[in-house]
Write a structure and sequence with these properties.
The protein has about 290 residues and is α+β, with helices and mostly antiparallel strands. The chain is about 30% helix and about 25% strand.
Amino acid sequence: MTALIIHGGAGARRERNYDAEIVHMRQVVEAMKLRLDAGDSALDVAVAAVVMLEDSGLYVAGKGASPNLAGAYELDASIMDGSTRRAGSVAALQGFRNPVVAARAVMDKTPHVMLAGDGAALFAHDQGLEMIADEDAWFTGAGKGEDNHPPGTLSHGTVGVCVLDAQGRLAAATSTAGVFGKMPGRVGDTPIPAAGTWADANAAVSCTGQGEYFIRVAAAAQVAWRVAAGQSLADAGQAVIDEIGGLDGEGRGGDGGLISLDAQGNIAAPFNSQGMKHAWLTTDGEIGVQVFRD
């Protein structure tokens, strides 16, 4: 029994066309289904899926990054292995193509969970990870589109994946670049295990939205802990999104969403923005793609 769910970010708006993203997300899920059918681990599939999303230039992660206020491209990513609780992440990484690969290397090659800034870049260089020769030519600036808030506000854009492999192992990974207008050094929930990414024996979760709010409620881990306490995956995810949306006490808190997958292969993708780009593979082998609720 295998299953998978990916996202290309919350914040989608109905006035924008997402045909390219819909086609691409289906391609990602189809490619990952082949890998799962071949027996690949949840962790390897999680990395491969996020690499495809980062490299597409269609989302606010990897190639789709826009610069911060100082003109620099700072990328964040994290990954977590549910069977061992191992995790790795990078924050404010500059100069490298795939931050999720760097996050996996932190998990596999160091005793640490997170490396940031210059330290993350030095480590990525020492690991021989692929560098970006010309940032202005590489990055597409997908974050400048209609999905995002004005500069100086809590804008958002992220990609992520949750995977259940044939051995019953769960894994999750998340990657983002923030968007045009973020302050230099700003780090949201994406590279923080428990806030933006989580995987354990009960559930895998990847979040997308205004990260400051997701950090404040330990959003990703809270979903899994609710499942462990007996709540359904759908109810757990919705409760967390409702909490984020009402953090100011008047229902005007953060916006965004999350994708989640439990050990039985159930999937859930609650969001409180207009839309959230996501696609999935069920345990029955069915593939679906959605941006907006019908």
